[in-house]
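Action item from last week, closing it out:
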Amino acid sequence: MNTKKIFIGGIIGGVVYFFLGWVFYGKLLTDFFTKNSVAPQGVSKPMDQFIWWALILGNIIAGFILSYVFVKANIKTIGSGLGTGLVLGLLIAASWDLTMYATSNLSNSTAVLADIAVFGVMSAISGAVVGWICGLIKS
């Protein structure tokens, strides 16, 4: 297994996830998710209360999931990374969001479906970048 590809792809993929999360969740859809939260005040913490190490580590781990799968599946193009990233993102988000919807009072069904779609798009974009990186790095 090519640990160099996994490591570099994982770090870069994590950075892409982090940036996309800021764009989608932090800027574009903040009000939408607040309005579709079951909690009256919303479920998001104010930015000054974020636990930054956990947020960064969570994004890096998401990058490593893509990178590991891509190396194992020999994915090394933007197109194949985009498609595989989309499918992985939709499956991971659906698993998490539907379980949380069934067992907690975080979000309504509209937010659950939107989050699945948003994470799918984020994973497709991150997957395209990780696929490209995997193609650039020689074994």
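Closing note: Residues 3-136 form one domain.
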